[in-house]
Amino acid sequence: MLRRADGWLLDVFYPERAACLVCGKPSHGMRLCPGCAAELNALRLDGERELWLGAAYRYQGVARKLVHRLKYDCVEDAARLLACAMAENARAMALPRDTVVTWVSMPEKRRRMRGIDHGRLLAESVAGALGLTCGALLERRGRGLGHTQRGLGRMARQRNLQGAFRCAGDIPPHVLLVDDVYTTGATMRECTACLREGGARRVETLTACRVMTRENTGEWMGRQGT
Ligand SMILES: [Zn+2]
User: Fold this and answer.
1) pLDDT per position as a tens digit, 170-211
2) 47-225 to CATH, choices 3.40.50.2020, 3.40.50.300, 3.10.20.740, 1.10.10.60
3) pLDDT, tens digit, for every residue of 1-11?
4) pTM over cut 0.70
């Protein structure tokens, strides 16, 4: 509890910034105003890892807006804020010290268009908070593969990603794979399979948010029942 409170204060206190990252209201030196901070806190997923698959927040409200601030407005502070909670979840995974943190690489064209690789920013912030190494272990293969997943169903997402990634260089035995949003898990499964093929023995996944659909929840409840 002490560590959590400490981390919160250290990571969230940001004297240069006077406005909330999400709503723009005065935030008294914090990254979020009290209202947004309270809402974000309520969206926190710090329960069983099996259930939330490492995700830090529900993909709703302020948490969703923070991801959008990072992805579409290139706000690096949003990555740092999300990474605080992600790192907390990662600590519960008891990762070996030689774990390398990596991210789901973005198609090059999109990365150039947005100007930042938000996955990389998240991974670097998480690695920094955990004192682990961060490195690019995955790259997109070919053109057109793994095009945007938005609006696609579960099966279509998985098909869309098949063969979309390849390993970049030597793959270490222990990897923590970071991404912004866990939707159906298709991306994480594809990347995990790729890293394992490349030689990783243990791949843990960690996302800032998880989409809480009936399908996702039902899937979990089904697993629990067996
Ligand atoms: Zn606010």
Assistant:
1) 999 999 999 999 988 888 999 999 999 999 999 999 999 999
2) 3.40.50.2020
3) 334 444 444 44
4) yes
Q: How far is the CA of 129 from the centre of ligand 1 (A)?
A: 24
- Choose among 125, 47, 133: nearest CA to 96: 133
Amino acid making up residue 176: L
- 134 Cα: distance to centroid of ligand 1 (angstroms): 31
Q: Residue 25 C-alpha to ligand 1 middle, in angstroms?
A: 6
Q: Mapping DSSP to helix (H, G, I), strand (E, B) and coil, where does residue 73 land?
A: helix
What one-character-per-residue DSSP string does 100-121 give?
EEEE-PPPHHHHHHHSS-HHHH
Tokens of 118: 């938000």
SS3 226: coil
